Amino acid sequence: MSRVRHLVLVLGDQLDLDAAAFDGFDPSQDAVWMAEVAEESTQVWSSKQRSALFLSAMRHFAEALRAAGRPLHYRQLDDPGNLGSLAAELQAALATLAPQRVLMTAPGDWRVWQAIKACVQAAEPSAAAHGEPGNKPELEVREDRHFYTTVRQFAAHAKGRKQLRLEYFYRELRQRHGVLMDEGQPCGGQWNFDADNRASFGAAGPGLLPARATFEPDAITREVIELVNTRFAEHPGTLDSFAWAVTREQALQALQRFIEERLPLFGRYEDAMWPGEPWLYHSQLSAALNLKLLAAREVVAAAEAAYRAGRVPLASAEGLIRQILGWREFVRGVYWTQMPAYAERNALDAQQPLPAWYWTGRTDMACLRDAITQTLAHGYAHHIQRLMVTGLFALLLGVRPQQVHEWYLAVYVDAVEWVELPNTLGLSQYADGGLMASKPYVASGKYIQGMGGPCAQCRYDPALRSGERACPYTTLYWDFLIRHQSLLSQNARTALQVKNLSRLSEADQQAVQERAEAIRSGAVGAAA
Questions:
Q1: Would you tell me how many other CB atoms lie within 10 Å of the CB of residue 280?
Q2: Which of 119, 488, 508, 516 is such that its CA lies 20 to 30 A from the CA of 28?
Q3: Which residues pair with residue 138 across a beta bridge?
Q4: What one-character-per-residue DSSP string does 408-420 give?
């Protein structure tokens, strides 16, 4: 066998034929390596929807590589002798192929990155395999061109700052890349239209909603569904509704449908909820973006073009662009400049275990039942359901943030650690003590009710903070203020909330704390 010059590693979230790792690829002497391994579904208890999406997208990408004439070494999960972990499979491939150099695009997971580095460093020199002069393979990591910024650029922005705030970083990127800018000024005369994007649907509900883009499983996806249902039968969720984009062509169709049909009202209703309606006006493009089936620049460009053509309000276009050009870049920078210590942050010293019903949806709280059941069925929930329903309850309850992180990483199809971990620990659970969020995002059940949550279908009353019918969110909100009064009173954005405690008598506060303890003990919340 001729010696492999460059072995290009492609991970499950790097499905881009134009990735930097392919620059200079020569099919006569280079090869591509990919592997499906059980570890990536068991390292956290990955849901069936998440595992199926990654595996199907990987297998479709393998077909695209073959069609492009790129030699491919591909290890399937159900291949005899599959070694079960990325490190073991890579170690075996390096011993067999003995490449001069290993190339890859920068990964999105600290654990995976450490495993790859260790494997390449431990690889035997190639001479023993081929009887010719050779050295240990070199590892070359190339920038991920799907992002507007590099980690070094973010580090330069963050240097000397005790707190990191999206707004300042976002404005820098808007200016640097000329996005939604007119003659050096932001379109519409302001940078951020978040205040215009908080409408609820009202009592009448959302009305007739545009259908989401769905894709009927083909032979490859059907094979994956059968494999996941067999191999990971005990994992959470179902695959009955699986219809995600698994190819670049499908992802582009989903993007076009979103821009034309849902983006016009996305901004206005991006924080709204409605019982039994998982999709509403959201894009559902984050999985395709994170798998690299779509490029961030093409989504941003499509949204801006729709605004400039008069088809989309500025508030909607800016709201979407802020999520991609702003928040997505911001959390990636936080992740790579703060890891690995960031993963262990627990500023509020939260130690409560995650309730078991997070994995089943069997709770008598209607909003949580709705959000979790939807999550397990589709591998999806929109950002307000994640932040202000499932995340808020865990924060108020005092769940250990690492358990919350593992749940989010396991159940959502768009979950890759670089984006999921900072969103969970930093934004949702305030575990980093305010490094990336200006305050803990805490609210009572009245917030969920106001945004269209299913409170009318619930046994609990958001207006009550104690007693048998008190909404657990409302009880735990007041309990959170009591427990963290000292910390919150020092924060200008939460000091007023703490002052509201003066409205509660000592007896009222005691009743709240006793009810909160019942909730934490599991006596309240689980379905009968």
A1: 22
A2: 119
A3: 101
A4: HHHH-TT--HHHH
Contact by Cβ (8 Å): 295, 147: no
Q: How far apart are CA 58 and CA 15, in angstroms?
A: 7
Residue 31 DSSP class: E
Phi, psi of 264 (to 5 degrees): -55, -35
- 97 backbone dihedrals φ, ψ, rounded to 5°: -90, -25
Return the beta strands (E) in 3-70 as ranges. 6-9, 31-35
Angle at alpha carbon of residue 23, lines to 19 and 24, rounded to 5°: 155
pLDDT of residue 131: 47
In whole angstroms, give the CA distance from residue 522 to residue 116: 42
- Which residues are CB-neighbours of 306 under 8 A, at least 6 positions away? 259, 263, 312, 317
Please enumerate in sequence order all residues whose Cβ is within 8 A of that of 265, keeping only pairs 6 or more positions apart, or say none: 281, 316
User: Crossing angle for the helix pair 151-158 and 329-338, nearest 10 degrees?
Assistant: 80
For residues 104 and 403, give the distance between their C-alpha atoms in angstroms, rounded to a whole number: 30
Pairing of strands 181-182, 185-186: antiparallel
Burial class (CB in 10 A: 0-12, 13-18, 19+), 110: middle
% of the chain with per-residue pLDDT over 90: 94
How many angstroms from the chain centroid is the CA of residue 318?
A: 20
Amino acid making up residue 325: L
Number of helical H runs and strand E runs in the chain = 24, 7
Q: Which residue has the tokens 């059907």?
A: 222
Model confidence over 318-363: pLDDT tens digits? Answer: 999 999 999 999 999 999 999 999 999 999 999 999 999 999 999 9
If we measure between CA atoms, which residue out of 377, 368, 358, 363 comes closest to residue 237? 377
Helix (H) or strand (E) holding 96: helix 86-97
Helices (H), 100-160: 110-122, 127-130, 151-158
Contact in structure between 376 and 240 (CB atoms under 8 Å): no
Instruction: Tell whether omega for the bond before 355 is within 30 degrees of 0, i.e. cis.
Output: no
The helix/strand/coil state of 72 is: strand
Beta strands at 6-9 and 31-35: parallel, antiparallel or unpaired: parallel
Computed on alpha carbons and rounded to an integer, the radius of gyration of the chain in Å comes to 24
Q: Which tokens sit at 11?
A: 């991970």
Q: What is the pLDDT of residue 124?
A: 82
Q: Which are the contacts of 454, defined by CB distance < 8 A and separation ≥ 6?
A: 275, 276, 366, 367, 370
Task: Give the separation between CA 259 and CA 240, rounded to whole angstroms.
Answer: 27
Asked if 324 contacts 289 with a C-beta cutoff of 8 angstroms, the reply is: yes
Distance CA 121, CA 501 (A): 57
Query: pLDDT tens for residues 114-173?
Result: 999 999 999 988 654 444 556 789 999 999 999 999 999 999 999 998 888 999 999 999
Predicted confidence band of residue 1 (pLDDT cuts 50, 70, 90): very low
